[in-house]
Amino acid sequence: MRKNSTRLDHVVLWVADPVAAAGFYQDAVGLEPVRVAEYADGKTGFPSVRVNEETLLDLVPLTAAERMDMLPGAADAAGHPVNHVCLALPAAGFDRLRARLEERGVPMSEIGHDSFGARGKALRNFYFRDPDGNVFEARHYDD
Fold this sequence. Notes:
Elements: E1 10-15, H1 18-29, E2 32-34, H2 36-40, E3 48-52, E4 55-61, H3 74-77, E5 85-88, H4 91-103, E6 115-117, E7 120-122, E8 124-129, E9 135-140
Parallel strand pairs: 1-4, 5-9
Antiparallel strand pairs: 2-3, 3-4, 6-7, 8-9
């Protein structure tokens, strides 16, 4: 990938308890927590979890929605959920994720097939919710 190409940097998720959310994403989804201790110590406004070397999910407390003033009207839209976020994994990672979610009793959809995405049709996919109601899709494109 070129250094100056357009890429997804981060997605902000509204959560009730950022520390608990980071624990869910670490334990159930297998993502690396970032700045959780700093958030717990009051040194930063929110923690994150790392999706890959260049993409984060920021876990922002819903109580911060009223302070979203980066442009006029932003506070009015803050806190509105997106439909879902999709994580593409290798086949083995897909299977491990599903097993971790099942072990923790996280409700999941049935496995679907041939769902279209950024790399064409995925061989398998399924959906799940985090404890704050954010919907995720997990998929893999090849075996």
